[in-house]
User: What shape does this take?
Amino acid sequence: MASLSHYTFLAALFTLAAALVVQLAGELGARSRLSFAGAGAVSVPVIGGLPSPRQSSTILAVNAFVFLSASLVLRVVATGHGPFTNMFEFSESFAWGILALHLYFQVRYRLEALALLVLPVAVGLLVFAATVPDNIEPLVPALQNQPLLTLHVAAAIVAYGAFTVAFGAAVLYLVQRNDSVPWLPRSDVLDEVGYKAVIVGFPMLALVILLGAIWAEIAWGTYWSWDPKETASLATWLVYGAYLHARVVREWKGTRSALLLIGGFAATMFTYYGNLFLGGLHTYA
Amino acid sequence: MVATGTISLHPVRDSVFTVLSRLDPLPRLVHLLSSTRFALVLILLIASLVLAGTIIDQAPASAVADQASYTRWLEQAQGKYGSWTGLLDRLHLFNVFRSLLFRSLLGLLSASVVVCTARRWRGIWNQSFHSQVRVNETFLLHTRFHVQLASVATPAESADSVRKALSRAGYRVHTEVKGDSVAMRADKHSLSRFGTFFSHLGLVLVLAGAVAGGLWGFKDPRFVVAEGATRELGLGTGISVRLDRADDEYYANGQPKQLRSDLTLFKGGTAVRQATLDVNSPLRYKGIAFHESAYGLAAVVRVEDSSGQVLFNQGVPLDLRAADGQRPVGMFEVPGEGLSVQITAPIMGAPDSFIRPGEVRVDFYQDYVRVDRPRNLSQGVPMQVANLTFTFEREGRFATLNVVKDPGTTLIWIAGGLMVFGIVLLFYLPPRRLWALATARPDGTTEVIVGMAAQRDVSLAGEFKKVEERVRRALDAGAGDSRNHGGNDG
Assistant: This one.
């Protein structure tokens, strides 16, 4: 079962990398055609019944998502617990969360171009996962709390996935802020997608911190230890809190809120990787 | 501080804070604390400090409590931070989370949240419960999303159609008739406006919980008790703890699987609670939680006086390390003799020529001064030292418990729940408000305007489009009914 999980993981990695390559080739092709034809055409048309590069990329991304889901399910069957207990499992789950949120926003807002920024992050995580040990280790005593392990980390995966989508929308917004790039979505849609992704991720991260505090109180007797992973999560939550206040109360939209989203994503990645070099109570994750 | 995108149509009466803001010297402070820009700066400053405290090594509480320990800790930090150590120390960046600056910023943020929330309370209350139903045509035509429709039905019939359509779309509709004009206000998720209070109250309660824990709680992270031994908890609790049994379990690969301790709690000499605890199952008794933290070896020692009376017979936790850093060491006192005994066990997992397996070494002290010569005790073999007989009975175990009383914890859970609940209300069930006006035209038809005041929000366009379609269909159906009704009358 574990080796089957590994093969489906590799299939997901290669399929997703192919999705990214096709997407990049499609965007470059669209740009070169636009430069010949002048402004106007936005999407690459379907020629002779074949899907366009963007459609092909989406189909590949959906396939990668299916492979990744299968890999995670097989891993759960093999280990007997959620795939959240070491860097390999968490990276794979994080990539799954990014893909899930990306596909949701792509379908909801018809934003194929978002893949340009989001897929590289997911591919990067899978490549990283491929470089770390994927041994199946039994759970250490502190992790033996099934409902909290699953809820705490599952919420983190959704939050991180949503923040990655927000990051992608923010970077595209900065490129498209004057609506001068015809092959990209409108700037107000990108701005809105960034916001919508944060309102998915922000309460989820609050839940991650709250569930983590409850678990820490049960296992270690203290709900907050100023552990690097805890403090990095708090800093990330504060950055997105600042973003929401700036956007909703002070009506910060556009460039300034996009920059905050990019800062928030940097904090997210730091939260994710920080414990690798900072140590602390989360060193197993 | 997170607000929803509706507008208030009510004149805001002077609140306590408006009155306070006119009094010197408060106005500037009240103005500052109620500024969302100031709150934003505070949040970003706190986030920056938290990030700094995450990246830069933080001195442990034990080091900060004592200047000599802190100096030693700084010397170690010098190896990592070099010439930056002095500057980082002066900026309190080795102690960010206990620094006056960090605590002041948290205090200011709490004050800002309280002032902002109090100032906005009346406005949100009025918006939710006392907003006017009728707005004029000019206002409606200036809303971000609006639609202007015509109907052959009367204003009352048209309004009824619109009301039904909005109700079906999940809106609660209030109607006001004035002459031949019918005005409506429709609200969806109206009470979600209060989500901002829940989330901000949660934030303040988190800090209040932390303060309560600091003021009225206690913590002993290294409460060590050996198997079979009973120890007083102290701290004014009157509780004693007996470790009946300690057990550790391992996976096949040698990795720890679980630690368990059977504990009995006594109060006034009576057993009041007995339970088995493990890492994820603490024992809780009257607000005090006992958490499994670590375990180790103990030596069960028996001491008798010359008359055969047993003076001591229990496990001695070997929870310290000898000067060589390898041999486990423990101490106990012989009751009534003023004698302290140090027990040293052999090096674990390596040959030890000084203390052999099955032996422990005993050293004797009185008032920190060594008395008599050290001896090796073999298991089960009594040894006479002065007028006392020492026997190393067997190896045992000890458990290290983290004993915590934190009266702020419940408040923290309530606060966390309020924060998440408030955030979910605000962002997943956002309040929506529409106004509609059905007015008779001179040509006998009815003009219907429906408008939604909103900030720029792409998804609201979708919501309004759905409402508009429903209203159009309802008006068409109503107009048909009206024509049929009119035809019958004719």
About this structure: The two ends of chain A are 23 Å apart (CA to CA). Residues 139-285 of chain A form one domain. Confidence is low (pLDDT under 50) at residues 36-47 of chain A. The longest helix of chain A spans residues 2-37.
